[in-house]
Amino acid sequence: MNNMHRGFSPVPARSAGFTLLEVLVALVIVGTALGASLRAVGSLTQNSNDLRASMMATWSAENRLTEIRLARSYPPLGKTSFECPQAEMQLVCEQEVLTTPNVNFRRVEVSVFDVRAPNRRIIKLNQLVSV
Questions:
Q1: Which of 41, 60, 72 is nearest to 112 (CA)?
Q2: How far apart are CA 108 and CA 7, in angstroms?
Q3: DSSP line for 27-70
Q4: Alpha-carbon dihedral of residues 15, 17, 22, 26, nearest 10 degrees?
Q5: Which has the closest alpha carbon to 84: 45, 115, 55, 109?
Q6: Which of left, alpha, beta for 72 (phi over 0: left; psi -120 to 50: alpha)?
Q7: Whole-angstrom distance between the N-terminal and C-terminal Cα of the chain?
Q8: Tens digits of residue pLDDT in 18-41
Q9: Helix (H) or strand (E) holding 125
Q10: pLDDT (tens digit, 9 = 90+) per residue, 98-120?
């Protein structure tokens, strides 16, 4: 009983600060948020790369269709393939000239592929060419 009178209490006082469990929960929350942020940044980067590839492929296809218009000649029927790079992108264009119900017109289709993924078409543009 003498000890009780000297300022000792039977319940220990709680020290200031965080428990290990609280710190671990906070770390899990922060880690999850950082993981989601990195995933979002990666997705934005991929979307930016895809948009850039689409833009470059469109330029290549439009260049080819413009060449055909400016040549003012009837393109021969059939399919041809040729390189059509833009900036540092190595692209391959595939041109197919098809007949139409009207003999005065031919349909020209230009598909653009990336050399690194030749089975994945980036873009396909069509144009009618007259005599």
A1: 60
A2: 97
A3: HHHHHHHHHHHHHHHHHHHHHHHHHHHHHHHHHHHHHHHHHHHH
A4: 180
A5: 115
A6: left
A7: 115
A8: 899 999 999 999 999 999 999 999
A9: strand 117-130
A10: 999 999 999 999 999 999 988 89
CA atoms within 13 A on the CB side of 40: 6
Q: What is the DSSP string of 81-119?
A: EEE--BTTB-EEEEEEEEE-SSTTEEEEEEEEEETTEEE
Residues 55 and 45: their CA atoms lie apart, in Å, by 15
Per-residue pLDDT tens over the stretch 78-93: 999 999 999 889 999 9
Whole-model pTM? Answer: 0.68
